[in-house]
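TICKET: design request
STATUS: open
ATTACHED STRUCTURE:
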């Protein structure tokens, strides 16, 4: 089991604002803040952003891929909209992706540092 995951960011303040908006759409909040890292989650920090001020700008085809589970398609849509409004880039608009399985409804974005972040729910499945 995975306890938590983290991605590197070049500007901690900007990334914190971005993820507060994007993850807020999925019900996660900022739970912990330290000088070089910020943790988000529902009951404990499950997702961390870590300052790496000296990292190179990430190419569009690279970066981490993290996927968050959402309860509804409306939350997926809100996640995608919040990311675009906060300065992220769409890497796949909300919609069904049958190539990934029955009822797989997801949206993909790139954060301010090129990390690929996904939100998914499963439509019509138990």
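STATUS: resolved
RESOLUTION: sequence designed for all positions
ATTACHED SEQUENCE:
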């Amino acid at each position: 089991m995975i306890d938590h995951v983290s991605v590197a960011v070049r500007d901690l303040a900007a990334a914190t604002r971005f993820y507060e908006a994007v993850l807020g759409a999925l019900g996660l909040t900022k739970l912990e803040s330290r000088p070089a890292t910020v943790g988000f989650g529902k009951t404990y920090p499950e997702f961390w952003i870590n300052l790496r001020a000296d990292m190179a700008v990430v190419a569009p085809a690279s970066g981490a891929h993290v996927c968050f589970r959402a309860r509804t398609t409306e939350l997926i849509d809100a996640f995608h909209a919040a990311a675009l409004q906060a300065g992220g880039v769409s890497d796949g608009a909300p919609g069904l992706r049958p190539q990934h399985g029955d009822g797989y409804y997801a949206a993909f974005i790139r954060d301010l540092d090129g990390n690929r972040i996904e939100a998914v729910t499963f439509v019509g499945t138990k």
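CLOSING REMARK: The longest strand covers residues 89-96. The chain has one domain: 5-122.
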